[in-house]
Amino acid sequence: EKGGYDHFMLKEIYEQPSVIKDTYRGRLLAEKGIVKLGGLEDYIEKFINADRIIIVACGTSWHAGLVAEYIFEDLVRIPVEVEYASEFRYRNPVISENDVVIAISQSGETADTLAAIKLAKSKGAFVYGICNVVGSTISRETHSGTYTHAGPEIGVASTKAFTTQITVLTMIALRLAKAKGTISQRDFMLYLRELDLIPDQVEKALKTEDKIKEIAAVFKDVRNFLYLGRGYNFPVALEGALKLKEISYIHAEGYPAAEMKHGPIALIDEQMPVVVIAVKSDHYDKVVSNIQEIKARKGKIIAVVSKGDTAVRDLADYVMEVPKTPEALTPLVTTIPLQLLSYHIAVMLGRNVDQPRNLAKSVTVE
Ligand code: M6R
């Protein structure tokens, strides 16, 4: 049942190229310039005329929501707020029928997310669901939605659910940008083609596993990790840290790279590994200077770099390479080495990777 893998988590990590394809199959026709989601077509006007989009979710699904905030604001120019479902529902939020709410949940059973949906509906908002489990409670409670089609995710640590959620959210953003006219035809076609290439790029990222294993062996006994990223890769830093915490029980914090100087930099010494997502992007030079600041304080740098990178490679202690893709799509590839890093550290520490202590696959308590 684990398909020859030692753990479900590893199997699910390796399924990503094929499940990402399953997610966009029949929905993305790159060469024809078509992206179409059944659940969305009737509500395009509702989305593009919305005052704002509010995304509610928990855990890894919340991180996918944060990635979506960047891509929606970039491509569709609609203000987006991303809320922890649990905070949203207990806070008397300002919400009206002009808001569109997107609820993201792998299981479709998370109690806090479900309660947030009910609250939003009671205020008249339109609620769109992105779920993996077909027929789940959240998929039934939302007005419309899109399934991720990632197949069953057994490992408690979410992996393929995250990348397929981002795939769906990216398709939604592209469809809306096209309808609203906020994207040029050239860029639209470019994104469609690049999205269609993502399964191959993920495949290439998976090929670096041996190198990642070596890095895992070096750092497995440390007690703290810092993860840094900017822009689209800030949520990936959060997700990388969550993955490490959940399955290895090592304390890890994700931070926007530029916030480091406002506090966390005090933690840096020769003991502290800092995972920096430093792929080619609009912020590349800034990330390079963040790395220099860490090096000056003797922190150990593990950098996620774009293929062919030299500047970061020269500065970093260890690098994990990912293929090049437009910045908006980089989370789909930069996530891969971080999943593998946590996995191997947890295995080396003898942890119960698929069923970490104190955690359940779906959190149905509030
Ligand atoms: O099923 P959901 O996507 O609603 O679950 C949300 C979180 O409970 C979930 O992502 C959790 O954080 C995972 N264990 C992360 O790996």
Automatic annotation (TrEMBL):
It comes from the Bacteria. The keyword Transferase applies. It is found in: Cytoplasm. It is an enzyme of class 2 (transferase). It catalyses: D-fructose 6-phosphate + L-glutamine = D-glucosamine 6-phosphate + L-glutamate. Its EC number is 2.6.1.16. Residues 43-182, 215-356 form the SIS domain. The active site is at 361 (for fru-6p isomerization activity). GO terms for molecular function: glutamine-fructose-6-phosphate transaminase (isomerizing) activity. The keyword Cytoplasm applies. Its main location: cytoplasm. Homodimer. Catalyzes the first step in hexosamine metabolism, converting fructose-6P into glucosamine-6P using glutamine as a nitrogen source. This is Glutamine--fructose-6-phosphate aminotransferase [isomerizing]. It comes from Aequorivita echinoideorum. The chain holds residues 250 to 615 of 615 of the full protein.
